[in-house]
Specification:
Layout lengths: L2 H26 L8 H8 L4 H8 L4 H8 L3 H9 L6 H11 L9 E2 L2 E2 L3
Antiparallel strand pairs: 1-2
Helix pairs in contact: 1-2, 4-5
Length: about 120
């Protein structure tokens, strides 16, 4: 199997896992902490997990930046990938967004990265 086919298969599997996790969370009554299929696809496409979770919580950048005591500009830089964000900042973001830190640090092709 070539790398492109393997990556496509991996992304498809990640999307299916996200959908199953969402269905399980919905059944448990905890859907707010899981991604919908569309949100999982956005994440798989490389969109910022911080942006996805922020929008899911109904927050704008200013509101989230105030909640975690950072500038809106810094938050925008994290969301666009211009800056990674410190571990401390990512922890505060995770707490404000009511998600685990791992939700803000997605896996890509077998490697963890902070976007």
């Amino acid at each position: 199997m070539n790398v492109a086919v393997w990556l496509h298969t991996l992304q498809d599997a990640e999307g299916r896992i996200a959908l199953l996790e969402h269905q399980l969370a919905t059944a448990k009554g905890d859907a707010a902490r899981s991604l919908t299929k569309d949100e999982a696809e956005r994440l798989s496409a490389g969109e910022s997990p911080v942006r996805i979770w922020r929008e899911k919580q109904g927050l704008n950048q200013r509101e989230l930046a105030i909640a975690v005591e950072i500038s809106q500009i810094y938050l925008a830089e994290i969301e666009t990938g211009a800056k990674n964000g410190s571990v401390q900042t990512l922890r505060r973001l995770a707490r404000a967004l009511k998600v685990d830190l791992d939700a803000l640090v997605p896996i890509r092709a077998g490697h963890w990265y902070v976007r």
